[in-house]
Amino acid sequence: MALPGWMLYLIHTLFPADTRRPTELGADVLIIATGAILFYILIIKGRWRHVWTEWITTVDHKKIAVLYLIGAIAMLFRAGVDALMLRTQLALPHQHLLSALEYDQLFTTHGTIMIFFMAMPFIFALFNAVIPLQIGSRDVAFPRLNAMSFWLFAFGALLLNMSFVVGGSPSAGWTAYPPLSENVFLPGVGQNYYLMSLLIAGIGTTMTGINFVVTILRMRAPGMTLMKLPLFAWSALMTSALIIFAFPPLTVALSMTLIDRLFQSSFFTLGHGGMPMMYVNLFWLFGHPEVYIVVLPAFGIFSEVVATFSSKRLFGYEVMVASLVSIMFLAYGTWVHHFFTMGAGPAVNAFFGLSTMLIAIPTGVKIFNWIFTMWGGRIRMTVAMLYQMAFIPTFVIGGATGIILATVPVDYQFHNTYFLVAHFHNVLIGGTLFGLLSGMYYWWPKMFGMKLDEHQGKWAFWLFFLGFWVTFFPQYLLGLEGMQRRMNTYPFGLGWHLLNVISTIGAFGMGAAFIVLVYNVVWSLRYGERDLTGDAWDGRTLEWAISSPAPEYNFARIPVITDRDPWWAMKESGATLANSLSPADIHAIEMPKNTPVPFLLGASFFLFGFGMVFSWWYVAVLGLLCVIATLIYSGFNYEEHALLTADVIRGTEASLGRLQA
Amino acid sequence: MVRFGKAPLLSRLAHISRRRWLFAAALLVGLFTTGCGPQYVLLRPAGPVATKELHLFELAGIAMGIVIVSVFVLYAVTIIRFRDRPGNRAPYMPNWHGHRLLEPLWFIVPAILLTIIAIPTVGVTYQLAHLPKARDPVVIDVTSLQWKWLFEYPGQHIATVNYLVIPTGEPVLFELTADSPMNTFWVPQLGGMEYTMPGRVLPLWLEASHPGEFWGHSGNFSGTGFASMFFHVKAVSPARFAAWAQRVHRTASPMTLADYHRLLTFNVVGESSYGAYPRSTFPSTKTGFVLQGGMYMPMHNDPRKD
């Protein structure tokens, strides 16, 4: 039976050979099964309306936080499975479980997803869940923009993940250096997916940055001066400032590569006067601030967690703020240390080596301040605190190896070896991921009204912590043995096999930790200890003053701030928000109304991106027209607020037992 | 106000069972003894460049070791002493939030340690940019291709693929470029790597102190054949090097442009030698950079134009 030509074209374009391997077919089956389950829940059981009105069209920062969190955990799973497949392939020398192309695709998606679609949304989940509550605000400055940011992230993530089963994955590494990432060397749509998904998600990220800068600068409760701002909010402010100025170079680099690929220009091509090194500069001009974008929030989380679980004021608040600010500025001045080996000359290399060492000083100062926050306190070993406590030694070692790599001539030897791989996993897992998990366990009661089970959480923690060190300590030694990153296999004679086996075992330990973590979450959602006080951990900052989960409007009456740890001070003086609120204090509140615009905007961008990926210009133009139409519709929609009457709020507060009789 | 509690720290550490200590000690010894094998090529320098880099690594390692150990000790004392346990008699100071002497201390001490690393870092960075004894070094033009290495000896008029022979006891100047995606040229035992980039020629000097055989590899991912980008380096005495070069020049067949175009195919090949090669396959060094007083000076021309 002969298929018509257009159908053959579609099959060959959408499902080329590298999407018809066993792993991809397995993923296809999983996707179809998930789709069936979703169809059953949404359509057959009729939950569609609930999902649409409560979640998809929501502009409530607390719900957007939950959506981000779900996305981040899903992406952690996807990129974690990638990592396990990579480690399985590397366990033994001369192994060919995965083809070279498949290996390349997996490390590309592993890195891209972990950074852009796991760490970033996880950070935004915690920003959304906590920042407005911490600064005494009813929402972020631009709630609808916030929802748009989320849906651009979600559809960007969908686009990148789709590449695995439709059209083929990118395979030039998460850095995607040209000329390798150009058409000559990587034809096919994989790199287009990478470029389009990052561009789309990048719009959302930039908007989030703007949103939180405005929120933190403009929407603090009366009395909360900048020097009374909790450190997590300070870190969010610095992160957002970094985002705003770091993403444009990335957008430029990606757009130019996209124009190279789709329209045959030669910004970065091999011949025709292309300048690949310019891409490398632009990428790391974004890439290095990005490292601090993902680690500063972790610093903020640790500052909150360590003070709470030591039952003590944070040590050296002013210095902590100063170091955050100086890291923010210095972060823009270190990017060349990612390519000392590109022959920039001794003066440039020496400058960037020194600037990199300089940034270690404010970072090191923070470590000492955290330790001295514990000194003289009473340390409670909860899961959130355990992640913080694991973070300090891990990050100290990660920072020390970072200094070693900043020593320019040493980097000539270690560049792109497993020493480097171990170093950046050391700081990204030991810093960012430990921080985010600590934050998740810490703020979970505030987000969901129940605690995550501590016993299960400790199992997950120890598996994760030990698995981490078993995975990455051998990789430092592999670096000393000269093993380069991104090799899909290696010969037997170089002595690399033993350490690789150990590393793979550790990786599976971390995989087991993930399973325990998910079990912990699912179990706790059903049977977890409910938190009726709103203050699950004897907290210090404002978010613990209100009920858990926070009501739609957050604060029935915006409190006046007089102390750096306002809730701790209130508890000390015996005056809580709960017993000081009288019915007369409560007035009607104007809240933003739900809107389908953000979701539709995301979907339109997805259509546009999909068309661009396959160079189907009609689809792309249609998508772009949909984007414009959605924005115009949104611009003419004047009824964007709804009034929550005082009676409704009184009812809610009374039912929470937080109103004077 | 900062005092140790009644129970001495050491006696608390002693409560950790002896078997656990033994296990930890065995684990550490095991890991460090693996650090002595010959496979640790970065700890086995065979020339002055690698040696300088290793010494700097050791210096930075020791300085960072001091940081790590002191932070760990302070940290261990803190968490053992201030754990929230019934009957803990360590002082509880809920409002202690700053100290005028301690806080500057952890600016100053790391700054001193970093200065100790930074001064030799800058020194060695400049030293490695100078070619010592710049009188007429052996020059090797390196081109990375998909997925193979082409080495051309302009002074000896020969070319090799995937293997190198170099004279010992004198610096060798490598001129690096690519007719492919970027790679790095790296022989770990001889010294650090440098990128091979299309459209640019970068200089790198290395030296082998004694005869020996080393492996080299690319350090930058360049596609599906990247793992195969090994090459073999043989360091021999200058006399034997000259004899080898003459023999290759006499016996091996010359490379034609067609041969070069065959090398441009995306594949993995073995080692081979050529008795001559067309000069147009490598951008002229004079347009890439020149040596001036033993230091590389970039020329601001696009080498591809000539």
Ends of chain A: how far apart?
Answer: 80 Å
Shape of chain B: elongated
Largest sheet of chain A at a glance?
2 strands, antiparallel
- Principal-axes shape call of chain A: globular
- pLDDT averaged over residues of chain B: 84
The helix-strand sequence of chain A is HHHHHHHHHHHHHHHHHHEHHEH
| Secondary-structure element series of chain B | HHHHEEEEEEEEEEHHEHEE
What number of domains of chain B? 2
Strand order of the largest sheet of chain B: 8-5-1-2-3-11
Number of domains of chain A: 1
Question: Percentage of helical residues of chain B?
Answer: 25-40%
CATH architecture grouping of chain A = Up-down Bundle
Tell me the β content of chain A: under 5%
Q: Specify Rg of chain A, calculated over alpha carbons.
A: 25 Å
Low-confidence stretches of chain B: 1-11, 299-306
Descriptive report:
The complex is a heterodimer of chains A (661) and B (306). Chain A is an all-alpha fold and 661 residues long. Chain A starts with a helix and ends in a 6-residue tail after the last helix. Chain A has helices spanning 5-14, 22-44, 48-56, 61-90, 100-134, 143-162, 190-218, 231-263, 276-309, 317-330, 346-374, 383-406, 408-414, 418-448, 454-480, 497-527, 566-573, 577-580, 597-613, 617-635, 646-655, and strands at residues 589-592, 641-644. The model of chain A has no long low-confidence stretch (mean pLDDT 92). Chain A is globular, with a radius of gyration of 25 Å. A two-stranded antiparallel ribbon of chain A has the order 1-2. Chain A contains 21 helices and 2 strands. Helix content of chain B is 36%, strand content 23%. Chain B contains 7 helices and 13 strands. In chain B, helix 3 runs antiparallel to helix 4 (102-129). Chain B starts with 8 loop residues before the first helix and ends in an 8-residue tail after the last strand. The model of chain B is unreliable at 1-11 and 299-306 (pLDDT under 50). The chains are: A mainly alpha (661), B alpha+beta (306). At the A-B interface, helix 5, helix 10, helix 11, helix 12 and helix 13 of A face helix 3, helix 4 and strand 7 of B.
